[in-house]
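Researcher: Here's a chain I'd like modeled. Treat it as a single chain, no partners, no ligands.
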Amino acid sequence: MNSSSVVDLYELTMAQVYFKEKREAYATFDLFIRSRKRPFYIACGIDDALSALERFRFTPGEINYLKSLSMFDADFLKYLENFRFQGEVWAVSEPEIIFPSEPIMRVTANIIEAQIAESILLNKINLATTLATKAMRIVLASKGRGVYDFSLRRTQGIEAALACAKYSYIAGVRGTSNVYAGYLYGIPVVGTMAHSYVMSFDREIDSFFAFVRQFPTKSILLVDTYDTKKGILKAIKVARALKKMGFNLLGIRLDSGDLISDSKYARLKLDEEGLIDTIILASGNLDEYAISDLIEKKAPIDAFGVGTNMGCSSDLPYTDVIYKLVEIKENSRSFTPVMKLSSQKTTLPSKKQVFRIFSPCGLMKEDYICTFEEGFDGKKLLKKVMYKGKRLSREKSLKEKQKLLIDKIKLLPEGLKKIDASYVYPVLISEGLKKSARYVRKSIKARTARKIVFFDIDTQFDFLSKKGALYVKSSEKIIPNIKKLISFANKNKIPVVSSQDTHVKCDAEFNDFPPHCVGGSRGHRKLAFTLFNRRKIISYRRVYSDEEIKRIIRHYPQIVITKNTLNVFSNPNTAAVFDLFFPEEVYVFGVATDYCVKEAVEGLLKRNFSVFIVEDAVKEISQKEKKRLFSFWKNRGVRFIKTNRLIREFIR
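Model: Modeled as a single isolated chain. Structure tokens:
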């Protein structure tokens, strides 16, 4: 199936958010195995995954289906119509011996492309790695005896059956019963006969003769339909007749019963007859454990047909392959490393490389997971395999991959080749990557901290200076705390929304108050320490679109909202600024408590925001009115905090 709609719904819902909010962001994801349930894994499916990325398209029918869900915006669906993966991919060379936490694949692309790719990449690599690893365990358990894939009838669908034939062949399985896999991949096809075939004849021996007459060089006779020992003797009689025709019986098959005693009996009788080249093939619920037991008990079996347990990887039908964000780049900044800290699911940050170190005798000794910039004396496992959405080299043939894996397995420590290996291969984390992880852990504090906004009300000369036109008495006492708050916000990347009274000479407000904060005058200016270097003024004279405000929020740590009334929410953009910030808590300070601060607090409460008053950074005109307001606000859920405590709690 080549359809690009093989994608989980949440990839598309996240992608629409990225399209609206982070369209220019780039991201790097690592695909790796999370937990250790096998002594080692065989990473496969990489070439299939790369082919899927190259083909990634949404057809008109799929776009219409997505439209019918009534979930996605028209502009996003238009984007999907022309969707192409154009990113960069690094991966290990398929097939590769790999261990948990080591990146099998690294994807760097526009965040929408990288996210949408997740499901198909995991699907391809999970299945292939699961089946190749299981097959390799069975091949190793067979100790050089032939293993054949008999899984077609027991796998979960045709695609799984084809995958088992393909990836088990890479792992060293010698052939498959699956004719379609033979046709597609050039894998040798093998087969014997079914019990139903034997039962369809009046006599067992007649079924054998009929078969060998048709296939004199390829006959493997199934001998356990009725009585296994009698079946073996009948097969020997057929072999004698076949020999007179100039052919040798290829083999007999045991599918049930006591495989140890039956195989020993069969080998004895075959050898007595001089049929030393006639093989014994065993089948029937075999896996690496059963095969290992047969070999340990010296059952003279030459080959194994393995079906269900290999095709379904019955003891571990999946590999815990995951795809996690490790770095992100936004707003022309360099990539920022990220990591997940969930219990038992912690990930490693940053773009990585894996180095494999070998012992003096050439065996694998240990692996190092490093940052991409670090260097080690070892073999680099990750190579660039795709650039701008195009593959950089041809795919190797299955035979080439099989040979490559055979050579790699020779370098695997013997302790890991055991079915119940207790030896744990060392996978070490470099100092550079540890340092990156420590840095990210510290930075995550900001990601998990409450989302807060400081709301700075009218910290202007006309209110805070004794020479100001509308000086708030004793307000100079709160200036040190306001200075602390602004400095703290700047250092800790806390957004600040500041109001700025901005009048013209004939404003109606001057009927009630002396002229003040006239635009361009000294009194209109905010105190210098209350201003960030990067700030954006939002005028009350125009209405900004939500998209404009989003861009302002993303790019400016301070937003200065002008107003020509007491109420900052009279600026038509103020409510949108707070709605789009969506802070968990708003900390209010400035002047005057019983006028402009009051209007700001009431506006926030009306919109259901959680409000804190920094009580030693506000100043009132009337002490009596302040007490009334504080009592009133406290009953409405407003909380009060002092500057130093706020800073201490944030740091903690």
